[in-house]
Amino acid sequence: MTGTTPIRVMVVDDHPMWRDAVARDLSESGFEVVATAGDGDQAVRRAKAAAPGVLVLDLNLPGKPGVQVCKEVVAADPSVRVLVLSASGEHADVLEAVKSGATGYLLKSASTEELRDAVRRTADGDPVFTPGLAGLVLGEYRRLASEPAAPAGAGGGEEQKAPRLTERETEVLRLVAKGLSYKQIAERLVISHRTVQNHVQNTLGKLQLHNRVELVRYAIERGLDDE
């Protein structure tokens, strides 16, 4: 684990044996499992009380579906990052989860080591997707960005008020829009992983966005991924 404070994790799944196994694996790997839940309503209540840094969330839950849990938890505390861990690789499920505020999407077929790495990266704000799904999400962002925007004239003032990003922040944002991970961006620009994180956090603050998923869409809407 990096740093001295363990990452606070909550595990939500309606299958007790699977939920307990995931919680145990993460706990043994140095994460602090602060809560677990077996249904949607319980998940929302316990997430608000336990304040996890990362919510590992199944989509198929009784009482309240996972996407609704994601929406409510992120709305209550935008600093919570949600990693969906699902048996479904259906494109509609992936896109719905991301639109609900999930930072990443991992299939349950992933190995324990892949899950550990995904939780660490999710805590850092990196969007994590099972191979093949990242391109799907980026493609959906491009589709949304190509749809008719707000009425003409509505964007003029917004553009004028757009915060000024430094040259390096813009460079990092462009690579974020291309789907590169923090590690890949750091290697490309020959800077540290922490410096990339700092640039992303500064950019999020300037643009008043909550997470890297929103940042990717912002960049794609402005065509930065094509430059």
TrEMBL record:
InterPro entries the record matches: CheY-like_superfamily, NreC/VraR/RcsB-like_REC, Sig_transdc_resp-reg_C-effctor, Sig_transdc_resp-reg_receiver, Tscrpt_reg_LuxR_C, WalR-like
Keywords carried by this UniProt record: DNA-binding, Phosphoprotein
Signal sequence segment: none
CDD domains: LuxR_C_like, REC_NarL-like
Ranges for domain Response regulatory: 8-123
Pfam hit, one: Response_reg
Top-level taxon in the UniProt lineage: Bacteria
Residue numbers carrying 4-aspartylphosphate: D58
Keyword Ion transport annotated: no
SMART domains: HTH_LUXR, REC
All residue ranges annotated as the HTH luxR-type domain in the record: 158-223
The protein's name: Response regulator receiver protein
Taxonomic placement: Bacteria, Bacillati, Actinomycetota, Actinomycetes, Kitasatosporales
